[in-house]
């Protein structure tokens, strides 16, 4: 492993490359990354970076987002078939149908979506920015795609808007039941429950804080608590431990809290993509331009 890490460091230097890793990736992937963050942070850091090559240790929609925000540079996906089942739950045709059904509504699209769906949307959102962005949209009626759980969370926080939900869900978060959380709480009384808004509404009722992964990192950095129950993909416990090594992080020990697509990325696949050029993300320029509008509006409205 040490040799792999040394070769990655040398190739990064030679090729002016940067590695961006999502908080759901394997611990060893996070440890070699230049930036570890949620999808919003990775999108911003990709746009701000001066690197010629961006290795996106994450799933396909993250690579597409980085490619749209960094025209003229190369974005490499270490594993070509690392996709996101949530993103695959909505098609461009379904977005067109919703727009026809609700003329005048704005379309807010979670970044966990294809570039074609983004291109049909008025604005993109991430889990950390969705509430603020939907609140700041001029339209009263908002079509929110594709995650119905995040959408219902936003609807609770922004009651002045009329939110139309799509039926998508993240298989990792959607399967967690209130009972799963209650059992862990019973074993660890007093632990603070952090939960991602992609969990179902009835499960969210068991949380102390509903937060994006970036929000969880920010709260843990404050070092106000000693024990946390973390209800999101298992990879984040590694990220959180780095920010507060003294605290205890308890996950659900539930095999469903494991994103198989994120875990496809290993340091060996990162080395191969840097060494051999890997899978470069390409997006047709007309689609990229429209999707870039929705993404740049996300950055503007997140104030
Ligand atoms: S955790 Fe869920 S939303 Fe995130 S990449 Fe995996 S399947 Fe998609």
Using the 3D structure, state the CATH architecture of the largest domain.
3-Layer(aba) Sandwich
| Arrangement of strands in the largest sheet | 2-1-3-4-13
Tell me the series of helices and strands, N- to C-terminal. Answer: HEHEHEHEHEHEHEHEHHEHEHEHEHEH
Low-confidence stretches: none
Number of helices: 15
CATH homologous superfamily identity of the largest domain: NadA-like
Outline, from the CA principal axes? globular
Q: Using the coordinates above, name the CATH class of the largest domain.
A: Alpha Beta
Describe the structure.
With 303 residues, this protein is an alpha/beta fold. The protein has three domains: 2-83 and 262-282, NadA-like (Rossmann fold); 87-169 and 286-301, 3-Layer(aba) Sandwich (Rossmann fold); 172-250, 3-Layer(aba) Sandwich (Rossmann fold), CATH 3.40.50. The protein has 15 helices and 13 strands. The protein has helices spanning 2-15, 27-32, 39-48, 60-69, 92-101, 115-119, 130-136, 148-157, 171-174, 178-187, 201-204, 213-221, 236-243, 267-276, 285-301; strands at residues 17-22, 35-37, 53-57, 74-77, 106-110, 123-125, 141-145, 162-165, 192-195, 209-210, 227-231, 248-250, 279-280. A five-stranded mixed sheet has the order 2-1-3-4-13, sandwiched between helices. Strand 1, helix 2 and strand 2 (35-37) form a beta-alpha-beta unit. The termini are far apart. The structure holds iron/sulfur cluster (SF4). Residues 24, 59, 84-86, 112, 170-172, 233, 259, 261-262 line the site of iron/sulfur cluster.
């Amino acid at each position: 492993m040490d040799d792999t890490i040394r070769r990655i460091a040398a190739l990064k230097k030679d090729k002016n490359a940067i590695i961006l890793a999502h908080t759901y990736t394997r611990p060893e992937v996070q440890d070699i990354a230049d930036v570890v963050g949620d999808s919003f942070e990775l999108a911003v850091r990709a746009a701000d970076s001066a690197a010629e090559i961006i290795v996106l240790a994450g799933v396909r929609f993250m690579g597409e987002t980085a490619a749209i925000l960094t025209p003229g540079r190369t974005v490499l996906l270490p594993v070509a078939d690392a996709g996101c089942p949530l993103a695959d739950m909505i098609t461009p045709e379904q977005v067109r149908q919703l727009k026809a059904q609700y003329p005048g509504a704005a379309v807010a699209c979670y970044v966990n979506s294809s570039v074609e769906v983004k291109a049909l949307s008025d604005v993109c959102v991430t889990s950390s920015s969705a509430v603020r962005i939907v609140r700041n949209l001029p339209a009263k009626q908002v079509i929110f795609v594709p995650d119905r759980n995040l959408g219902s969370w936003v609807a609770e926080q922004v009651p002045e808007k009329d939110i139309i939900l799509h039926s998508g869900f993240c298989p990792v978060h959607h399967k967690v039941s209130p009972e799963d959380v209650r059992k862990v709480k019973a074993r660890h009384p007093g632990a603070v429950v952090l939960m991602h808004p992609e969990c179902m509404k009835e499960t969210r009722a068991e949380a102390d804080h509903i937060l994006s992964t970036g929000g969880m990192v920010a709260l843990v950095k404050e070092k106000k608590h000693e024990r946390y129950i973390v209800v999101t993909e298992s990879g984040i416990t590694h990220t959180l431990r780095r920010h507060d090594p003294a605290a205890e992080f308890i996950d659900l020990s539930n095999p469903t809290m494991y994103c198989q697509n994120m875990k496809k990325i290993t340091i060996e696949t990162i080395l191969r993509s840097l060494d051999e050029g890997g899978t470069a993300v390409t997006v047709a320029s007309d689609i990229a331009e429209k999707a870039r509008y929705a993404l740049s509006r996300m950055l503007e409205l997140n104030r």
